[in-house]
Amino acid sequence: MSKFIIEGGRSLSGEVKVSGAKNAALPILAASLLTTDTLTINNVPDIQDIRTMLGVLESLGCEILDFSNHKVIIRGSKVDGRDPDFVKVKQIRASVLILGPLLTRFKRVKVTHPGGCHIGARPIEAHLRAFEALGATVHSDDQFYYVETAGLRGRKVVLRELSVTATENALLAAVLAPGITEIRLAAAEPEITNLAESLNLMGAKIKGCGGHTLIVEGVSQLHGAELKIIPDRIEAGTFAIAAAVLHSDVLIDGYVPDHLDMFTSKLLEANVQIQLLPDNCARIARTTQLKAVDVRTDIYPGFPTDLQAPFAVLLTQAAGHGKIFETMFEGRLNYLQELSKMGASSEILNAREAIISGPTPLYGKEINSLDIRSGATLILAALVAAGISIITNAEMIDRGYEKIEDKLTKLGAKIDRV
């Protein structure tokens, strides 16, 4: 198990390039199961979750012809409906996205309960009900889900919740289902639009991208294509916070304004000096005095839940009292206990709400990365803190951030992996 050792108190400067979005790459990789042709996927982040997903796909018969320079070349001609590697499936929640493609292509799928970060209840009931609406039958036991169909057909699918992965799975299942599928209460995140537009490049017929109703006209087959992953809005936001709390001047290449409207609004409200530039770039200029604001996470285009924890570090350095209301996942405030060890002043009101008071000095401590986003949060706190911080379980952060220590080092941070 590796650790990050961080010397805090250094300002940052320079330019940072944002990697491709993990949460866009994973469903697009799953789409390789829908065609026997070759897909070339550009701007894929080289992180652990991507490699785990590629391992799941390989276990199903996909050929990974290349993964270098952020390009994946993958072919699904040897996929034959075999069961996946269940050990790998349990390592990553996004493995649930193999259900839709395998069901529509082979009419049956068996999969273990998916893994991922432990941040509260994350059931897949919405996925299963969507499959049933398309003509599948579902049953499960303590270990597996079993989904079968005589043949999916286009129908109206009303999702039980605005779930990103359930929307993606419904799309992946519907593109080869004869007839017209209408997906109501679809989530509208940019990552879903990236998937839908990628499927269209492969020959699918999907309308309504970016809205809460998606119309899918089933086609008989999909073909190969060259695709591109959008920039990771969560990574872009993380670097924006790093620059703000360290009163630094940083240019972020890959900050897509349309993907971060509410986040940008909260930065401005907190007195962060941010300038939106052409070609999806943003500059964070030196900020003198941060101001506390309230943050409520919500479905897109609301404030992203994955930026809630990093934003808490900004609140520790802002004047006043800021309230966090986490509406998406319960139990996603546990990182505050680690921040408190470093000197943060916070009060957890319940499983979803907390108040953070500032500005407070932070001090270097040994702290533990609980999940991907809390791990990035602790890196931000360590960059601010006086002295040396040690962050254990660094591999957890690697699941979502590509070479974050290298990017921060190039900006002037003192961070080492041991």
Describe this structure in words.
The protein is an alpha+beta fold and 418 residues long. The protein folds into 2 domains: 3-19 and 231-417, Enolpyruvate transferase domain (UDP-n-acetylglucosamine1-carboxyvinyl-transferase, Chain); 22-228, Enolpyruvate transferase domain (UDP-n-acetylglucosamine1-carboxyvinyl-transferase, Chain, Alpha-beta prism), CATH 3.65.10. 31% of the residues lie in helices and 25% in strands. The protein has 14 helices and 23 strands. The protein has helices spanning 22-30, 48-59, 86-89, 99-106, 125-133, 164-174, 190-201, 233-245, 261-269, 308-316, 335-341, 372-384, 394-398, 404-411, and strands at residues 3-7, 13-17, 38-42, 63-68, 71-75, 108-112, 136-140, 144-149, 156-158, 180-184, 205-207, 213-217, 225-228, 249-253, 274-277, 281-284, 295-296, 320-325, 345-348, 353-358, 366-368, 388-392, 414-417. Strands 21-22-1-23 form a 4-stranded mixed sheet. A 4-stranded mixed sheet has the order 2-14-16-15. A 4-stranded mixed sheet has the order 4-5-3-13, covered by helices on one side.
**Distance between the first and last residues' Cα:** 9 Å
Domain count: the total is 2
Q: What is the molecular shape?
A: elongated
Q: Beta-sheet strand percentage?
A: 25-35%
Strands, total number: 23
Arithmetic mean pLDDT: 96
Summarize the structure.
By secondary structure, the chain is an alpha+beta fold. It has 14 helices and 23 strands.
